[in-house]
Amino acid sequence: MKARKMNKIFISLGMICLALIFITSEAFPWGYATHAYIDDHIGKKCGSKNMYEIYGGMSPDIFNYMFDYPEYLGYLYYQTHNEFIQVWEKAKTKREKAFGYGFVSHNDVWGADYTAHHSGITYGQTQGFVIEKAYILKQILEQIPEYQALDLPDSLALEVSHNFIENGIDILIKRLDPNIGKKIALSALYRNHKIPLFLVRTYAEDFSAYAGISYPEAAYLITTAEKEFRESMILYGQALMQDEETAVELISEQTADIAESFLGVYGITLPEGIDLMPIIIFAIQQSIEICSGDYADEIEATVYHVDQQLGAHGVTY
Fold first, then answer.
1. Cα 9 to chain center, whole Å?
2. Residue 66, burial from CB neighbour count under 10 angstroms (0-12, 13-18, 19+)
3. How far, in Å, are 10, 82, 146, 248, 273 from residue 255 at the CA level?
4. Distance in angstroms (rounded) separating the CA atoms of residues 225 and 219
5. How many Å apart are CA 151 and CA 285, to the nearest integer?
6. End-to-end CA distance of the chain
7. pLDDT tens digits for 2-32?
8. What is the pTM of this model?
């Protein structure tokens, strides 16, 4: 009995460590608008299938914000970004195929995320377009006293900059496609009610075995995370439907709302009374400036790369 209890403790500690590794290295690659833009330019170009591809393309990040369950976050992240092909293989209906097509396009092995933080195509070839830009932003932010006061560990400071770069590029995507926010919101609003059950069918059995929880518990965590993600994508899309200044402010508010939970995973408590909004707005504005000159070429190159890779791996319908 004692041995079983100790094994469970070691498994839990291992999952927490895995979660922290993924959060600080890969949890925030291309932003939602960027994935939506990519999926809007591959696969089906109109109709409900296109909407399902867009929602599917954002959905591998469903579990990225499970900060209340850090012991599960890393495992689920790996499943959606590295073991992604099972979503495609288990898709049966036309809706599931369209959703799975977008889902696979996102992947971290050879999909859109690969160019974000492993090997950029037009810039950042050694570590990814987003990562390369994050180093530039990090150096700028470290000159700001209010940011210095947060006293973030170096690796975490890079990840925070990574997230801001992602936000900034999403604002720039709005310049390429002024309707991108509407497409995000509609794809989430009209996603079929069976999609969460499809995710349960795909992931719940292995997740319950890995985490040592019951199948119904695993199913509940998956469907709850998808519900919250869907709601946040509706809000995110609505934010991008506003003028650029308002969109930056609204996205900054969303970022500030999750900052405390995100930092809490690392045992970091924000200074009492601190207002993160000015720092976040400044960081996103700097991200826009850093990326405005060359982001479009990288995005278009990534669209072509993902389209070619999907075909090469037999992901077509």
1. 29
2. buried
3. 33, 26, 17, 10, 17
4. 10
5. 22
6. 51
7. 444 434 433 343 443 334 334 444 444 579 9
8. 0.89
